[in-house]
Specification:
five-stranded mixed beta sheet; FAD/NAD(P)-binding domain; six-stranded antiparallel beta sheet; alpha+beta; Elongation Factor Tu (Ef-tu), domain 3; globular; about 625 residues; Arc Repressor Mutant, subunit A
Length: about 625
């Protein structure tokens, strides 16, 4: 007899997306089950032991502003904190932290276990359970989810399921000619979920990702490397963290050599990416070392970063040398790096191919268009990166709970958050390579800084019930302090000019303002930075708001749900097919659909106006 467990929301997979999805659903009051094949790998960092970076830091701080887990976990377990792009403006700054890999994983697990309404369960999901949808009409889902079946003759019942399976769907790992089934070293794979998705009519495709080798730190000659210390004033990720107080560890920088490149070229006939053994695309912005040597043949070296995996291990992650070359080639390659002549590899690099579900099959809420109540988040949507996964997970989990409560979905616009940019890009444009977030993708990045994510998003989270009361109270205190400081700057004059106007000048700094008015010295660093940035960029932000308002009047115009594009006269077949498949919510989203022209949109406008006239 099949044993059955009843929940409101089921989350499949306990990586970075699954953790945020489960915690978000639970925070909204949904009885949530987080299912993972191994409870000891919750929140595991499969590749680089780091959080943040340019573009990615904005996502982490937005996840935190919405009540998420990632920022708090890295603040508690980070071993080195650095702000990248300090020489550029605030919109381009990218805080990044190296993590103690095991401590991070343990901290995430602790936060999951202590979340009310959330049960962590060790289960292997083999099949999705669905039934025909009772809601008819153009654009309506054909199916609705009712639960999942797990190994061991048991089932979990729920009206909403979030799929966050990462790289584990029909996954194959490659090291040279050797191929092993699995989505991560030492772990297996699953085929049942892929079969279920394909059986429901969802399209599946394949992507590839990779990871570098890890070295025994006791076999490394660090004297030959350049030291890379952390910042003297480490900045936390979570808006709930007052300061980072733990000791920081050093990382190191070195480079590959022409001899290494010659070795790689001589062994391309054994490289799965070049023999046809791997046929799927990998992340263009994080290529393997063999791919870099071929694509950038004019370069005689590439930078490598040696990063500790934790405080209580000597294992070293070699950032910049991701590879699926055979073991003997990896051994020889590493020992050609000055300082690594005696180095021993603890874990060999490998590539992994896996199924993903193209995200243009999702609504902006990350709910499947084909299966009501089924949400997708993370690498199963064709993205890469812990931060991108966490952002999607939070939105998908929140929307699963909101759906069951009969409330509207959490959908962030492109001018509200990097998360809005990420999800809009995925569901509107789809992906043809693993998607990674960059600041260049955000057209409103001047307003979407990492430092003001709480001011932008915590009020939204509070309105939904995602943000804890103490988080909201903390923001209110901060906002009051910001307004008080701005009023003080506007009231105090030096030689007839207010300090607020003087801060608009590039040669005048916050330190100069403190010198002119010493009482400003008690203002916190965080508030001072916010006020100074707001004042300096006020003119640019006003221009951006005016431009956005003009665009929004047209772009926010809604397209009726289930609108039948076959009724639009003279609409090109390609446009009709694309719009019917993506089913954009607004004309703004429709305009970003690949292949849609202004003329196509004009025809849709005319068709809608004729219906209402």
């Amino acid at each position: 007899m099949t044993i059955s467990y009843d929940y409101d929301v089921i989350v499949i997979g306990a990586g970075h997306a699954g953790v945020e999805a489960a915690c978000a659903a639970a925070r909204l009051g949904a009885r949530t089950a987080l299912l993972t094949t191994n409870c000891d790998t919750v929140g595991q960092m499969s590749c680089n032991p780091a959080i943040g970076g340019v573009g990615k830091a904005q996502l982490v701080r937005e996840v935190d502003a919405l009540g998420g887990v990632m920022g708090r976990a890295i603040d508690a377990t980070g071993i080195q904190f650095r702000v990248l792009n300090r020489s550029k403006g605030p919109a381009m700054h990218g805080p990044r932290a190296q993590a103690d890999k095991k401590l991070y994983q343990m901290e995430v697990k602790r936060l999951v276990e202590e979340t009310p309404n959330l049960d962590l369960r060790q289960e292997a999901v083999e099949e999705l359970i669905v039934e025909p949808s009772t809601v008819a009409g153009v654009g309506r889902s054909a199916w609705r989810i009712t639960g999942v079946r797990v190994r061991g003759d048991a089932a979990y019942r729920a009206a909403a399921v979030v799929l966050t399976t990462g790289t584990f769907l029909q996954a194959v790992m490659h090291t040279g000619e050797a191929q092993v089934a699995g989505g991560r070293a030492g772990e297996g794979t699953t085929a049942g979920v892929s079969r279920s998705l394909a059986g429901l009519g969802l399209r599946l495709d394949r992507f590839k990702t990779g990871t570098p080798c890890r070295l025994a730190g006791t076999t490394i000659d660090y004297a030959q490397f350049e030291e890379q210390p952390g910042d003297v004033d480490p900045q936390p990720f979570s808006f709930l963290t007052d300061s980072v107080t733990q000791e920081q560890l050093v990382c190191w920088i070195t480079r590959t050599t022409p001899e290494i490149h010659d070795l790689i070229r001589a062994n391309l006939h054994r490289a799965p990416m070049f023999t046809g053994q791997i046929g799927s695309r990998g992340p263009r912005y994080c290529p393997s070392i063999e791919d870099k040597v071929v694509r950038f043949s004019e370069r005689d070296s590439h930078q490598l970063f040696l990063e500790p995996e934790g405080r209580h291990t000597r294992e070293i992650y070699v950032n910049g040398i991701s590879t699926s070359l055979p073991r003997d080639v990896q051994d020889a390659m590493i020992r050609l790096v000055p300082g690594l002549e005696q180095a021993r590899i603890m874990r060999y690099g490998y590539a992994v191919e896996y199924d993903y579900c193209p995200p243009d099959q999702l609504a902006a809420s990350l709910e499947s268009k084909a299966v009501a109540g089924l949400f997708f988040a993370g690498q199963v949507n064709g993205t890469t990166g812990y931060e991108e996964a966490a952002a999607q997970g939070l939105v998908a989990g929140a929307n699963a709970a909101l759906l069951l409560a009969g409330r509207g979905p959490l959908v962030l616009d492109r001018d509200q958050a990097y998360i809005g940019v990420l999800i809009d890009d995925l569901v509107t444009r789809g992906v043809d390579e693993p998607y990674r977030m960059f600041t260049s993708r955000a057209e409103h990045r001047l307003a979407l800084r990492h430092d003001n994510a709480d001011r932008r998003l915590t009020p939204i989270a509070a309105g939904l019930g995602l943000a804890e009361p103490h988080r909201v109270a903390r923001l209110e205190v901060k906002l009051a302090e910001i307004e008080g400081v701005r009023a003080t700057l506007a009231a105090h004059r030096v030689r007839g000019t207010t300090l607020a106007d003087m801060l608009k000048r590039p040669e005048f700094s916050w330190q100069d303002a403190v010198a002119a008015l010493p009482t400003l010295g008690v203002v916190s660093r965080e508030v001072a930075a916010q006020v100074e940035t707001d004042i300096r960029y006020a003119g640019y932000l006003a221009l951006d708001r005016d431009r956005l308002e003009r665009q929004r009047r047209m772009q926010e115009r809604l397209i009726p749900e289930g609108f039948d594009y076959t009724t639009v006269r003279h609409l090109r077949a390609e446009a009709r097919e694309q719009l019917a498949r993506i089913r954009p919510r607004t004309f703004g989203q429709a305009g970003r659909v690949s292949g849609i022209t202004p003329a196509d949109l004009a025809l849709v406008v005319l068709a809608l106006e004729s219906r209402t006239s």
